Amino acid sequence: MRWSSWWWVVVALHARTLAQSATPSVCHEDACRCDPFTRVICTCTRDNPEVTLRPDGAYRVPATATRIIIDNCTRVTFLPDTVRNLQQLRGIELRNVDHVVINERALSWSPFPNPDEMNPGLRISINNCTIDEIASHAIQGRVNDVVISNSRIKALKPFAFSSLTGVNNIELSDNIFENIEIQAFKKFTVENFVLRGGRINALPSRFLSDVEVTNLFRMEGVTVKYLYSLTFLVNSPKRVLIESNNIETLESDGFHIVTRGPITFRNNTVTNLRKGAFFGFTVDLEIASVMGPQELLIDNNTVTNLTPASLMYNRTRLTLRVDGLNLNTSCACELADNWREVLKEQGGTVTCWYELEGYFVSLPTYVDSRCGPFKHNFWIFVVIGVIIMLVLAAIAIFFIVRRENEKKKKVQIVMPDGKTYRETEFHIVVERAELLTTDL
Ligand SMILES: *[C@@H]1O[C@H](CO)[C@@H](O)[C@H](O)[C@H]1NC(C)=O
Ligand SMILES: *[C@@H]1O[C@H](CO)[C@@H](O)[C@H](O)[C@H]1NC(C)=O
Ligand SMILES: *[C@@H]1O[C@H](CO)[C@@H](O)[C@H](O)[C@H]1NC(C)=O
Ligand SMILES: *[C@@H]1O[C@H](CO)[C@@H](O)[C@H](O)[C@H]1NC(C)=O
Ligand SMILES: *[C@@H]1O[C@H](CO)[C@@H](O)[C@H](O)[C@H]1NC(C)=O
Ligand SMILES: *[C@@H]1O[C@H](CO)[C@@H](O)[C@H](O)[C@H]1NC(C)=O
Fold first, then answer.
1. Can you tell me which atom of ligand 2 is nearest the CA of 128?
2. Collapsed DSSP state (helix, strand, coil) of residue 176
3. Which end of the chain, N or C, is less packed with Cβ atoms under 10 Å?
């Protein structure tokens, strides 16, 4: 009797473990497998084009997962709280996916009680995907790196990236952003923030809101149609580089950045540079008192519509150096009048479009050769000069023709009849009627 009851207990226990292992995890999805390194690897095929990642129930992500790698799917959905309890997780990689949806709190990961940056963090990388949506609060917690490249982002909701801790890099390269809502990146600290290449229709106010960048802030090679006021509300970068961008309209105070180092605005093409576009740059008080004022360098940019007020800057703890500014407007003396103050401060580094030759020439050089009281009337002098020359030429021709005519009228007559008479010269004097004076 005793033996049989033990036997039943054993059977019951065995049944339970069977039942547990019978609950399939994502490792049992047709598209996915889990390797001995506890990585979840999903490679979709025509027959299994979709993967859904969920925190519990059938086909949940196993608690031991260290990485989630998804490739070549038509649709990938992260349900809310997918990664919350995956303490071993270190990375999420998505490649070649046609529709990615990251729901609210789907990638919220804070498994360690104290927010210590020595704790490991997640690396999130998305390449060549179309992201339908990154929902509000989708990505939170202990994240090391976020790399999104060669992707199309259709909707980035407010607070999509928020309350992150210990972030090293956020790198957004060669993406097409269709709809970015305000405060997409909200209130966290990151070492380097890089926005590089790609196209953005509108960068809204507070795209980065209260984001502390401790090392490098870089925006490079991006084509932007409209960059609104207060798009970048950023503190503390040691270096700010805004290079080789093509911006149609840059609103006043677009970059509201308190730096701890120099700012470089180089090789950009801007169609409309609004008044006070650079007015939002300021320098951290502590840095300025230790290292002196920092420099805002404006170098080799081409701008079509601007006024000197576009270059206004906050002179407290900041200096301006213009090393190259191509005004994409035809050179004219009045242009120089408008830019006199800037030219006085910045020297010969402002150029204008010289229509006659089809290139940019230094505005002061143009002024020296074309403007001023005499040069202003240059063409009038040229015309008068030409008229005087023509008149002189006409007079000269008149006298030459007259002398020739006189020569022809000298006639020689040789008398016939053997004898030689002295040649007689008849001088025929042509007298002009007007020259006759009569008292009639
Ligand atoms: C990607 O998916 C397509 C069908 O959707 C399939 O033909 C192709 O072989 C897959 N590529 C890889 C690398 O798995
Ligand atoms: C990018 O992803 C699409 C599917 O979304 C795929 O057809 C294409 O081959 C991928 N391109 C590269 C360079 O991997
Ligand atoms: C300047 O910007 C253009 C694009 O606007 C780019 O093609 C070129 O390589 C850049 N030059 C330098 C020296 O960065
Ligand atoms: C200056 O800007 C022009 C136009 O964007 C670019 O073609 C050229 O390479 C730049 N030169 C330098 C030295 O950056
Ligand atoms: C200029 O910058 C300083 C701090 O660097 C700030 O206190 C001041 O308000 C700024 N001036 C304007 C007009 O914004
Ligand atoms: C300069 O302005 C002309 C029209 O005024 C425009 O067609 C051209 O693209 C502009 N060039 C640059 C480099 O912005």
1. 1
2. strand
3. C
Of 228-232, 300-304, 410-414, 433-437, give the lowest mean pLDDT range: 433-437
Ligand 2 contact, 96 CB (< 6 A): yes
Distance from the alpha carbon of residue 123 to the mean position of ligand 1, in angstroms: 25
* 158-168: pLDDT as tens digits: 999 999 999 99
41 CA → ligand 2 middle, Å? 18
Distance CA 176, CA 63 (A): 34
Residues ≥6 apart with Cβ < 8 Å to 418: none
User: What whole-number distance in Å separates Cα of residue 203 and Cα of residue 18?
Assistant: 54
Beta strands 411-413 and 424-426, pairing class: antiparallel
User: Would you say the CB of residue 223 lies under 6 angstroms from ligand 3?
Assistant: no
pLDDT surpasses 90 at 378: no
Buried b (16+ CB within 10 A) or exposed e, 153-176: bbbbbbbbbbebbbbbbbbbbbbe
| CA gap 315, 325 in Å, rounded | 20
Q: Tell me, using a 6 A CB cutoff, whether residue 125 lines ligand 6.
A: no
Classify the C-alpha dihedral 278-284-285-287 as positive or negative. Answer: negative
pTM for this predicted structure: 0.82
Cβ pair 105, 128 in contact under 8 A: no
Task: Return the ligand number nearest the Cα of 244.
Answer: 3
Atom of ligand 1 nearest to the CA of 74: 5
CA–CA distance, 261 with 213 (Å, rounded to integer): 12
Q: What does the pLDDT read at residue 17?
A: 47
Query: How many Cβ atoms sit within 10 Å of the Cβ of residue 292?
Result: 11
CA distance 62 to 109: 15
Please state, in angstroms and rounded to a whole number, the distance separating the CA atoms of residues 210 and 165: 14
Q: What is the mean pLDDT of residues 209-224?
A: 98
Q: Which residue has the tokens 């209260």?
A: 210
User: Of the ligands numbered here, which is closest to the C-alpha atom of 241?
Assistant: 3
